[in-house]
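Methods: example folding runs. The two proteins below were folded one after another, and each record is reproduced exactly as written to the output file, sequence line first and C-alpha cell line second.
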Amino acid sequence: MKNRNKKKIRRIAIIGLGLIGGSLAKILSKKGFEVIGISKSKSTINKALKQKIINVGSLNLKKGILSNTDLIFICTP
C-alpha cells in the first residue's frame, strides 16, 4: 500500500554558503530544487544569485524566510 501522505521536497534552505553549503546549493539547484541561501555576506549572496546557485538570498533569518521550506541544511562552522 502506497503512502499517499508523503510530501515531495521542492524548496530547500541552506544556512551558510561556504564550501559545503555552496556546493550543496549548486548540486540541488542543478537537480531542479528551489534553493534559498542564507549567508552573513552580501557578496556571497550576490555571487550565488548571479551564478544561479540559489533562487532567493537573505542576510539573516528574517521572519518567514524559512516558513515554506521543506528541508533546511545548516552548513555553518
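Second run, written to the same file directly after the first:
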Amino acid sequence: MSHTRNARRDFLRQLACLAASGSAAALVPQLRMMGTALAAASTPGTLSGYRALVCIYLAGGNDSWNLLLPYDQARYDVYAASRGGVYNAASNAAGLALDRATLLTLSGAGGSGSGNYALHPSVPELRSLYDAQKLAFLVNLGSLVQPISKADYNASAALRPPQLFSHSDQENLWHVGAARDARYGWGGQAAAVLRPQFPASNSTVLSPCISIAGANKFETGNGVLAYQLSSGGLSGLSGVCNPSGCTGLAGQRDVALNQLLADSYAGNLMADEYRKTFQRGRDLYALLAGGLAGADGSIATAFPTQNSLADQLKMVARMIKLSRAQGYAARQIYYVRYGGFDLHDGLMGAGNSGHAALLGNVSKAVSAFWTALGEIGAQNEVTAFSMSEFARTLSSNGNGSDHGWGGVQFVLGGGVVGGRLYADGGGPISGFPDQSLNGPVTLSRGQCIPGIGIDQYGATLARWLGITADTDLAAIFPNLANFNPAFRNLGFLA
C-alpha cells in the first residue's frame, strides 16, 4: 500500500517508540548497517575451512617500550637513562624505567636472540605464550609512507605520515592500513574481497566483520559494515516477541510491528531504508540469539572478572564457536578495544589506571582467550593481533610519557611463528632500536622512527586470512609498493 506523508511520519514515530520502550541495546548497532551492505547474496567460491582475525586495539597509545625492553646490561642502561632512571615513588617519581631485577626474561628458543630481551613484570601470561612459541612481537612498528632514515625524516616532510602525533589521525592510519586517509578500513576491505569466495552454505545475513566495541573504520569496506554486539551478548526489544511468535499483549504488539515492517515505503527512501534495516536487525537477532544461548555459544573457560577486555574476548570466543558450528562464514574479522593508555599522567602509578594494571589485564585476557580457543579446537584457525596508534616518548614529562611513534605489537595464534622478535622491515632502520634520546633512529624525546610499516603488518595478516593476489593486496594497502618486495610478507605467520 502507498502511504501519505502523515502516515510515514506516524510510522517513524511508532517505530522509534518501540525501540525506546525497552532494552534495544543490541538493535541499535544493527540499525547502522545501512544500504545494501548485507543484502546481496554471496557468490559461491573456493574458500574452505575457517579462519578469523581478531584485532585487539589498545586505545590511547600504549607505552610499549615498557612492554618489551632490552635485558643485556649495556642496552638496558641506555633504556634506563632515556627513561629518566628507575621509577621510585619516593626518590625518583619522574622515572619511567622498570627495575631490571623485576623483568620477565624471554627464552631464546625461537632462534632470534630473544634471550637478550624481557617483558614487563605484569605480563607473565604473555611470556608463557611467547616461550611456547605461540606469540611473537613486532618491534618498532608504526605508520610509514615508505621506509625512511632519520636523514630522510629531517630532509622532507612529504616522507612523514600526516598528523604524526595526533590520536585520531594515527588511529585512522592504523585502521585503513596505510599512511593516508581512505574511505575504508583494511579489515573491511579484506572481508569485501573474500566474501564472494565463501561457500554457498555460508550465511548471507551476518557480516563477516563483527565488533564487540562499537562502530569502527577498520571493519568498514565496500559493501561491508561490522555487525555490532556487546560483550554481554544480545538484548531484544521489550514488549514484543524476540523473535516473533509469542502470545498475549506482546504477541499483539509483535503482529503490529511486523505489519509496519512489511509495508512498502517506496515513496520515502529514508523511511523504507529504516524499515529494511530495522527488519534486518530483527533477523540477525533471530539468527544468533538461540545459538548464543545454547551449547554452540557457551564457553567453559574461566575468564578474569572486572576486566572489560576479557569480557569482549570471551564474546569473540563464543561467536567463533557458534560461527564454526553453524557455518556462518569461512572467514571472519573481529574487533575489540581496551582503553586507558593515554598516560600523560600516572603512568607508573600502582592503581587500576596505571600502566602495570592495564598490561596485566591485557595479559590475563589474552591468555584466557587462548585457552578458550583450545577448548573449542580453534587455536590453529584464529590469529589475534594488537594495534595502538603509537608508542610513547622514552623521556618522561614528569609523571608520564607523551605521544611517540614506532612501538611494539604482539601477534598470537597457532599459525604464528612465535617465540621470536620481528624487527626488520627491509628498510634503512632494522633491529631493536637504539634507545638513546635523539639517537640514530630517535627524535629528541625518544620517539622512535619505525623500521616496519603498518602496510607490511596488515598485508602479512591479510595474506594468512586468504588475500593472496598481489592486485588485491595493492588495492587494500596502496603504499605496500613502496616497501621492499622481500618484506611485504614479514613471515610471522606460517
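Comment on the second run: The first strand starts at residue 51 and ends at 58.
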